[in-house]
Amino acid sequence: MTEPSRRSFIRSASLACGSVLLLPSCRQQPGGYRFFTAAEAACLVAFCEQIIPGDESPGATDAGVIWYIDRQLSGVFEYDRESYRNGLKNLQSLCSVQFEKNFERLAFPEQTTLLKKLEANQLTAMEWPTGKPADFFNLVRSHTMQGFYGSPIHGGNKDYVSFRMLRLDDPLVIGQNRYRT
Amino acid sequence: MANKHTNAIVVGAGAGGGIVAKELATAGISVVLFERGEWPNYDEHPNDELISQRSEVLGSPFGPDHLKNPRVLVRKDGSRQVVTPIRGGYGNNAACVGSGTVSYGAMAWRFMEEDFKLKTVYGAVEGSTLADWPISYQDLEPCYEKAEWEIGVSGDDTQNPFAPPRRKKQPMPPFEYNQEARVLLEASKRLGMHPFPLPMLRNSIPFNGRAGCIRNRTCCGFACPVDAKNGTQNTVIPVAMATGNCEARTGCMVVEILVDDHGRATGVKYFDRNNQPQVQTADVVVVSGAAVETARLLLNSKSKLFPYGAGNNYDWVGRNLMGHAYTGAYGLFDYDLLDFAGPGATVAWCDFNHHNPGIIGGGLLANEFNRLPYLYCGVRPPGAARWGKEHKEFQRNQYHRTAQVVGPIQEMPMFESRVTIEPRIKDFWGTPVAAMSGERHPLDHEHCKFLSAKAEALLREAGAYQTWQSVGGQGGPSGGQHQNGTARMGNDKRTSVVNQFGQIHEIDNLFVADGSVLPNGGGFNPALTIMAIGFWVGGHLAKNFAGTKFK
After folding, report:
1. Least-confidence region, from A22-31, A34-43, A135-144
2. Of the CATH numbers 3.40.50.11030, 3.50.50.60, 3.40.50.1000, 3.30.70.260, which one belongs to the domain with range B6-544?
């Protein structure tokens, strides 16, 4: 394969799966996303990675938090669908106007600065036309924490990564008296 | 085909109702024990923090169905919001046989003598309906003993100098202290406090045909995988059913108590598990649905002599809704002190329940149940990051190094904190739902500040290098899993709902036997007291029942 072809192959593969920089496993859910478009997911994956970044232990992307949020929006969190559609749209519009780039393509510190503005409601109605930015920020923050630290059966916390970070035995061993005096 | 008449109906198979059913059935009285939920399934939602009684983020592990059972929250500005069990402010109790006694933390507290006569001890409180109970601790003492032995309690009250008098010890030895408790123990003694092992409604040894506790870390908020946690579903209710006199009719939603034109209860209307309306007649009806649903049921039961709801001619049904504001402190240590032997709460202090200068009542302090990962996301000192790398580092580095001391504050009852009916919102079966409204008494927050300060001082003395308080008692109304107060016990029908035996004033064959009857909630988890009320009301009924036998 020649150089340009390989580059374009990787780029198209990234766009199909989600983020430019980090690739959450597409095989985590057969059939792909139930709710998000690929473009929405790319933005949200980067947002969640800001909430719980990878460092010496995996972050939100590696934990597959996007799959938790995607799944719950088709179930118990159906009330939040509008908020996600509008919130992600607002975020991308804002980035496209201010930086001429999508949110997921901003440098990490730029993303952090922008999200702090959302959290503090420091955006005008022009910049954030529907709803309050802080409400959307807090929604994504809560869902990210749930998807990262909750049980893997709900779609996130892949391979119990957060439990391993917290030095908890995974899965929980039942049937023994584990107490040591 | 109509249901066969029964001697007694009990509505709600929880801490109070299960015991009433057993007291009646073992006395030869036929009982239909209604429960809107099902028998608890220990294999569903094991170790799932997001579907647990403490964090109902994705659902309630034991119901009720979050789409079928809305309530309404009335805010301070009068605006109304529909809430479901998984969306904040609902104040859910598990809807299953055993109810909260399946999933609770299972602390097993007797109220102190003072808790039955707060007005005598402390005087009237301006703006509060604070009143003495019509019964004393001594009246209820034999019932506490029955609850401890028939449900099963591990503890040793001789180690608690503030414990009320008792005739018989607790049946099982107390649980050992965990590492967090040992860290706090000597420090508390240096401060003049009196630590002792937390009494628990759990088997510390094999008891009653079931296993001893395996120290499972996911305990509080979960069903026990080895059935070592004691509730009414694995003790008194099977005993009641074994007599042949008790039918547990699950999946049935009781919607109205039928009261005839002479002011006599004749039975209940309910929807069966196929959502068909049915009627069950009985000689006596006992309501044990917990403070919110019991008030709702009484208010929805209108009749000729009680146009505002059963027993509500003086507008006290639904009033004085209380719960427990939790208040305490956290401390960070520079070594690991989390041994994760569940459930995590092992040591307690009753030094601050009563006779604190300038404080009415008070509350117990204990080291808290294990903080599971998602809950721990919210455990941060003031000013700490709420997200990002700093938040994650705190989670990773401090998870094993955080101690928490916390307790339930005795709340001041407020007439305007109440349960009413919202006629415009109906549940799945078409029944108007409960609306919770009102504010806490301002003293609740002051009392919480007092208790949190004691908790923080203890953590400092124990060597925490950083401490911070978490002070409750603001906003309102109260309620939640410790809900109580809405069918107050009293001697005067104009300022109470039931008499000293839990009998509705003016409806002789209608009783309430749950937390609704408590005039105040103590500075203690209320489950054992509610169980004692079950024995108290059930015992009275069994002794005085003069109806026909039903087989």
Report:
1. A22-31
2. 3.50.50.60
Q: Which of A19, A93, A150, A49 is nearest to B54 (CA)?
A: A150
| Peptide bond before residue B164 is cis, with ω within 30 degrees of 0 | no
DSSP-derived pairing of the beta strands B246-250 and B31-35: parallel
Give this complex's ipTM: 0.93
Residue of B57, B60, B66, B178 to mutate for A, most A C-beta atoms under 10 A = B57
Among A172, A173, A176, A181, which would you mutate to test the B interface (most chain B Cβ atoms within 10 Å of its Cβ)?
A172
Q: Hey, what amino acid is at B287?
A: V
The continuous run of DSSP H or E covering B94 comes out as none
- Both ends of chain B: CA-CA distance in Å? 18
Q: Are B295 and B419 in contact (CB under 8 A)?
A: yes
Q: Determine if the peptide bond prior to B171 is cis (ω within 30°).
A: no
- On the CB side of B83, CA atoms within 13 Å amount to 21
Which among B110, B107, B99, B112 has a CA at the least distance from the CA of B201? B107
How many angstroms away from the CA of A35 is the closest CA of chain B? 18
Contacts of B396 in chain A (CB under 8 A): 57, 165-166
Question: Which parts of chain A fold into alpha helices (H)?
Answer: 3-17, 38-51, 65-73, 81-99, 108-119, 133-149, 161-165
Any idea which residue has 């965990």 for tokens? B178
Domain boundaries, chain A: 3-165
3-state secondary structure of B436: strand
Residue among B59, B210, B522, B204 nearest A151 (CA): B59
Query: Residues with Cβ < 8 Å from B115, sequence gap 6 or more?
Result: B137, B353, B361, B410, B520, B522, B523, B524
Identify the residue among A56, A76, A83, A108 best suited for mutation to test binding to B, counting B beta carbons within 10 A and taking the highest. Answer: A76
- Please state, in angstroms and rounded to a whole number, the distance separating the CA atoms of residues A114 and A130: 17
Alpha helices in B335-387 (DSSP H): 373-376
For B322-352, the pLDDT digits (tens) are: 999 999 999 999 999 998 888 999 999 999 9
CA distance B14 to chain A (A): 27
CB pairs under 8 A between A and B: 95
Quick: pLDDT tens for A128-160. Answer: 999 999 999 999 999 999 999 999 999 999 999
Chain B: residues touching A (Cβ < 8 Å) = 46-50, 57-59, 66, 86, 176, 178, 214-218, 225-226, 339-341, 373-374, 376-377, 386-389, 391-393, 395-396, 399-400
Instruction: Fill in the DSSP letter of residue B332.
Output: E
Do the strands B402-408 and B365-367 form a parallel or antiparallel pair, or are they unpaired?
antiparallel
Is there a contact between A177 and B392 if contact means CB atoms under 8 Å apart?
no
Q: How many helices (H) and strands (E) does chain B have?
A: 11, 17
B212 in Cβ contact with B206 (< 8 Å):
yes
